[in-house]
Amino acid sequence: MKSPVLGLLPMTSLLSLDDLSACGRFYHVVECDGWISTRHVAPLDGPYEDAVLVAERFYDVPYLWGGKTASGIDCSGLVQVSMARAGFDLPRDSDLQYQAILAKGWSPQSLETARRGDLAFFPGHVGIMLDQETLLHANATFMAVTANPIEDVIRWVGKHHEAPFRGLFRPPKPAES
């Protein structure tokens, strides 16, 4: 409890924990010979969380290109971390995420059928829908994770891209255990 912090771990970091290493409220972490609270560890096979609830934890976190932590996060990091906690493995970059969801056959949606948890893709940008009209995304417009009407985001991106909206996609239902 009184030792110095060894480092910060992004949400969804993979750790090697000693077998039977739970010592009260802590696990021994093999990689750094340190300890982590049992409250901050979850098994790889679930239980899974709602991706939107995970993403909302990052509301107002500063925008940081390449970031994936509460100290700073970018759009694809926000989506990757949130979707990972919901049981979906996505690449790090928004363009690779877009290609991955196309390859996995995620269901395309129209803006009229948008709903909570859908992913919205733009050239070089991605976000997660809070509801039918509102996108949660890490963005350089406000230099933070913000919630904005998706129509506003399309308009902002349209100032720099002829085709500002790549599509809206619904993740498949998580596999039943």
From TrEMBL:
Residue span, NlpC/P60 domain: 45-167
Protein's UniProt keywords contain Ligase: no
Keywords associated with the record: Hydrolase, Protease, Thiol protease
UniProt feature coiled coil, ranges: none
Keyword Protease: yes
One BP annotation, GO: proteolysis
Cited InterPro entries: NLP_P60_dom (IPR000064), Papain-like_cys_pep_sf (IPR038765), PG_Endopeptidase_C40 (IPR051794)
Single GO molecular function: cysteine-type peptidase activity
Pfam family, one: NLPC_P60
Gene3D superfamilies: endopeptidase domain like (from Nostoc punctiforme)
PANTHER family the record matches: NLP_P60 DOMAIN-CONTAINING PROTEIN-RELATED, PEPTIDOGLYCAN DL-ENDOPEPTIDASE CWLO
Protein family membership: Belongs to the peptidase C40 family.
Protein name, per record: NlpC/P60 domain-containing protein
Organism in which the protein naturally occurs: Iodidimonas nitroreducens
Lineage: Bacteria, Pseudomonadati, Pseudomonadota, Alphaproteobacteria, Iodidimonadales
